[in-house]
Amino acid sequence: MNVLLMWPPAFGKRIRAEVSAEVEKEAGVYPSLGILYIAAYLEQNTEHKVKVLDGKLEVIDAQRMAEVIKKEKPEIVGITTLTFNILAVLEIAGIIKELDPDILICLGGPHVSVYPMQTLKLKHVDLVVVGEGELVFSDLVEAISSGADLSAIPGIGYYKQGIPTLNPGKNYIEELDMLPFPARHLVDMSKCYSLLGKSKTMITLQSTRGCPYKCIYCDQQSGKKLRKRSLESLLAEIESIVELGFSDLFFIDDLFTTDRGRVMAFCEEIIRRKLKIDFKISARVNLVDKEMLLMLKAAGCYRIHYGAESGSQQVLDSLKKGIVLKQTEAAIRCSAEAGIDSLAYFMIGSPGETREQVFETIDFARKLNPTYAQFSITTPYPDTELYKLGLAQGVFTDDFWGKYAENPSEGFTPQLWTEHLSAAELLRLANKAHQKFYFRPTYIMAEILKTKSLDEFKKKFKTACRLLWAS
Q1: What is the CA radius of gyration of the chain?
Q2: What is the pTM of this model?
Q3: Please, are residues 310 and 346 in contact by the beta-carbon 8 Å criterion?
Q4: Cα–chain-centroid distance for residue 282?
Q5: Dihedrals phi, psi of 440, to nearest 5 degrees
Q6: What is the spatial distance between Cα 369 and Cα 287, in angstroms, rounded to a whole number?
Q7: Rounded Cα gap, residues 256 and 26, in angstroms
Q8: How many domains is the chain partitioned into structurally?
């Protein structure tokens, strides 16, 4: 079979995210590792022909996409589906079905895992995959190709004699080493970039899946159990990336530093093998220490992303974040002392949060003085404790995500936690927070001194102007 895996092209419709559009515009572009892993597994374990169309990397309109469909003649198209891009996915599915109604449309991804049956019942959808898709999608393609019964494949949805049918199960892969490296050869990796990266091209990779913590705003789509690749597998992938000529890496793990011993061993191996890489990671503020940070720096780590979330301990506790403000202060300070940049994420509009507490967060961010800060509006994602809490307390008027999943429509905007602050005021405060953090004379001068090229200066200046004009 001819298989096409797709991240929805940018021309498709999407609903508003919780991050200000002005912040999103210059964030960077990375490939979808999910579809590259699925493509690699298919190539390694089947005889099917696999192509990838990544709408995050390719500038493509509806006409161009139609040309790709006509050229590749796929028999099945797998599309990564988020709640925020479901409208785009359905628009694309409609275009594909108009070109050839016999092409099977299979949706997978976070939205499908939360709302599998609702998704399966949507127009133009033939199949859905629940959970991680590498193994199960391969089994599904093999079964369709051979005409086998689909009832034995866990975690898939399909039509049986015209009736939507969902097999029980949510697929998680325990042994991550069994997966081949992502099929990066199927996309143009030169188009990956990050505004804040060390080089023009940045490569994403993943060393773990899952997170054992219980923050109420996280949907934990990778599961609560931390699953780790062996260091042998991870280092082999890094060596293969270096051989391709890339050296700037972004680990997209939820948390890179959960296993301290593994982190230290990883850094030691990077140094011992003399791998000349620069990389950035994400970590909890309570899962780093001075010795670890110095080792990370020696191995090439140049930035750590931390979930600081709030400058109010009361708000942190309401989010079940499991940290205290002093830990955030120590993590940012020790990172700077080790020579590692930091990016601190903050949330505005959490349960019980007042306007005064929002300004506590802004003041806290300025006091912390991380290298970068991002302020987003707390959004109740589907299937999170935050969303369930809002429904139980009557903060949300109805199950708006469930209704949207059954009937996605334009003009939809997710409800926010507007107990004390309106949605419009939350957006203004988020924009104000960025302005108050970034438009400090000392910060501006420090960034000018760090800027190494005219192109980098232009990108940063353009982002700064958008932040300034956002409100």
Answers
A1: 22
A2: 0.92
A3: yes
A4: 12
A5: -100, 135
A6: 20
A7: 25
A8: 2
